[in-house]
Design goal:
Blueprint (H helix, E strand, L loop, with lengths): L4 H33 L3 H9 L1 H12 L1 H18 L8 H17 L14 H15 L9 H25 L3 H27 L4 H10 L8 H8 L1
């Protein structure tokens, strides 16, 4: 009996992938050991952690739905993390959305993408809205280009990427059920966090954030105002 040529090709690709991954992990481990021997802890830990983002990127390009779900988590937690991590965490959402769009393009090497799903009226409306927002950049009455950039992200850019991506990779009934479930868990986490702030007080990083804004409170921080008055 002759072996199926497709099986031979698959076995070769699988063996080649295992060889490349094994060699890369071994090289990273040896490099980390060498940096440890030179007391360069930062470089050593960087090499030890490197496989995780690389695996994330690899899996994301094979499964755009996975990275889109990751974007939902990033969108919920990014702003809260800014009180603990001194970095523009809001841009993380932009990065994940852009990565999702790239993964949809490159996933065509494995699965055919039906681009017709994105051709909806809502998509066209969002494109028109995004173009109108871009025109605001050349508005002679514009006061700040930086303000335009940050306002444009929430008002147009997120819609411009999210709506077509939902039609392409997050368009099944189980996806809608997953979205509702995530919203429920996110709401529960917010309630628990609010109760902790009200009955146990804010943590050190939140108190620093409150002191920095000096009483300026915005949506979702009623408990902070309550604690300050107490």
């Amino acid at each position: 009996m002759c072996e199926n040529p497709a099986n031979k090709t698959f076995n070769f690709q699988h063996a080649l992938t295992k060889f490349i991954v094994g060699t890369s992990l071994t090289a990273l481990l040896l490099g980390a050991i060498w940096f440890f021997s030179k007391n360069n802890m930062m470089a050593a830990f960087a090499l030890l952690v490197m496989p995780f983002p690389l695996f994330f990127l690899y899996y994301s390009f094979r499964n755009p739905r996975f990275v889109f779900i990751t974007t939902l988590f990033a969108n919920y937690f990014a702003i809260g993390l800014t009180r603990y991590i001194p970095a523009p965490m809001g841009l993380m959402v932009d990065a994940f959305l852009f990565l999702t769009a790239l993964s949809v393009v490159f996933s065509q090497f494995n699965t055919k993408v039906d681009w017709r799903n994105a051709g909806r009226d809502y998509t066209y409306f969002v494109i028109v809205w995004f173009v109108m927002t871009l025109f605001q950049l050349i508005n002679p009455e514009a006061v700040s280009r930086e303000a335009w950039f940050y306002a444009m992200r929430g008002q147009a850019f997120y819609l411009f990427l999210t709506i077509p991506l939902v039609y392409l990779v997050f368009n099944k009934p189980q996806d809608f059920r997953l979205f509702i479930t995530l919203c429920a868990w996110f709401t529960l986490l917010a309630v628990l966090k609010g109760m902790m702030q009200k009955y146990m007080g804010v943590d050190r990083w939140e108190q620093i954030w409150l002191n920095w804004f000096n009483g300026l409170f915005w949506c979702g921080f009623f408990n902070f105002r309550y604690l300050r008055k107490k």
